[in-house]
Amino acid sequence: MLIENLFYTLLNDSNFFSIVYMHLNEKYFVDREHVIAFKKLSEFHLKYNKIPTVNDLKLLIESDTNISESDTELAYSFLNS
Question: CB within 8 A of 21, min separation 6: which ones?
C-alpha cells in the first residue's frame, strides 16, 4: 500500500515529484513490478523532462521486449491499483 501511494502521488502531484523523485533509487524497491514501474518512470522523465501518466508507463513497459509477459502483467496490475 505504501508503494502504491508513493507512485500515485508521484504521478499526480508535480510538487511532490519535484521534491521526492531525486531521492529515489530502484534499489529501494523490492518487488519486480515496482522496479519496472520506477525504471520506466525514470526513463520517461529523463527523456521528456516531465512526469509520465500511467498510460505512458504502460506503453513503455509494453514496448520493452526485455520484460517478460508475466512481469508486464504484474506491472500493469500494480499501475492499475
Answer: 10, 45
**Nine-digit cell at 30?**
523490492
Element at 13 (helix H, strand E): none
* Range 61-68, long-range pairs (CB < 8 A, 24+ positions): 61/36, 61/37, 64/40, 67/36
Which residue is listed with cell 515529484? 17
What pTM, to 2 d.p., does this model score?
0.93
Locate the domains of the chain by residue range: 2-80
Number of CB atoms found within 10 A of residue 39's CB: 18
Give SS3 for 56: helix
- pLDDT tens digit sequence for 56-74: 999 999 999 999 999 999 9
CA 77 – CA 81 distance, rounded (Å): 6
Residue 72: HSE in the Cβ half-sphere, 13 Å Cα cutoff: 12
